[in-house]
Design brief:
The protein is α/β, with parallel strands linked by helices. 34% of the residues lie in helices and 15% in strands. The site of one zinc ion (ZN) has 4 residues, from loops.
Length: 239
């Protein structure tokens, strides 16, 4: 049975449309038995989100808040079909946890368009650690072609509790197909809350239940311990 100890996708007031401070997020995470959270506020192209300076000054934060390790991260917006993202390379190089996500108010979905090439381009970007909520039916892609490349390039594939289960049954269907492909091609996954308030931090029960029910291999789930997450980051980066 899969039990999670880290939440690798959370938002604070910096995101503009989220409502808790990093202290509230970390304290709630500790109460809920988590060892680590990644603070991944939306990058500047999301309306109302943090300025580049927010991300360049993250080192002002303590490594731990209470007993919870806090990773300095970002949820990048993909800006175009070539996979351009919205923070400068020099800054991304020194950040610890970089999610790349397609958001419909930044990259407007086009009816009938195929996003396979875009997702393959993200696989080639060494400054991306995790592909965020790729279960969206608004951005269809060839899972069979893309997941093996993600696996090969060491990209973590996210299963996002909020995105999969609170939007539509089609998201759930896509997430199942995605998880099955990750198991088959041995791609690492992370199961996250995408919490926009402290009340949702660590809330991943439905996604975990889905993986347990599928018999998903536990060793492919990254966030079952803080140590596993930290070892993964170390193995990828020359810090
Ligand atoms: Zn997102
Ligand atoms: Zn998010």
């Amino acid at each position: 049975m899969i039990t999670l100890r880290a939440d690798l996708h959370t938002h604070t007031i910096t995101s503009g449309h989220a409502y808790s401070t990093i202290r509230e997020m970390a304290e709630t995470a500790e109460e809920r038995g988590l060892e680590l959270i990644a603070m991944t506020d939306h990058a500047p192209a999301m309306p109302g989100s943090g300025h580049t300076l927010h991300f360049s000054n993250l080192r002002a934060l303590p490594r731990k808040i209470g007993e919870v390790t806090v990773l300095q991260g970002v949820e990048l917006n993909v800006l175009d079909m070539r996979g351009k993202v919205d923070l400068p390379k020099e800054l991304l190089t020194r950040m610890e946890w970089r999610i790349a996500s397609l958001h419909d108010n930044v990259l407007i979905p086009q009816e009938g368009r195929d996003y396979t090439g875009l997702y393959l381009a993200l696989a080639e970007n060494p400054q991306i650690d995790m592909i965020g909520h790729s279960d969206s039916p608004d951005y269809p892609f060839d899972i069979e072609a893309v997941v093996p490349v993600w696996a090969e390039q060491g990209k973590v594939v996210e299963l996002n509790e909020h995105h999969v289960f609170d939007i539509s049954p089609r998201h759930v269907e896509n997430a199942r197909r995605l998880a099955a492909a990750c198991a088959r091609f041995r791609a690492t996954v992370a199961v996250n809350s995408d919490a926009h308030t402290c009340w949702n931090v660590g809330k991943t029960q439905r996604a975990v239940a889905m993986l347990n029910e599928m018999g998903f291999p536990e060793e492919l789930v990254l966030n079952t311990s803080a140590q596993k997450v930290l070892d993964f980051i170390k193995s990828k980066k020359v810090l």
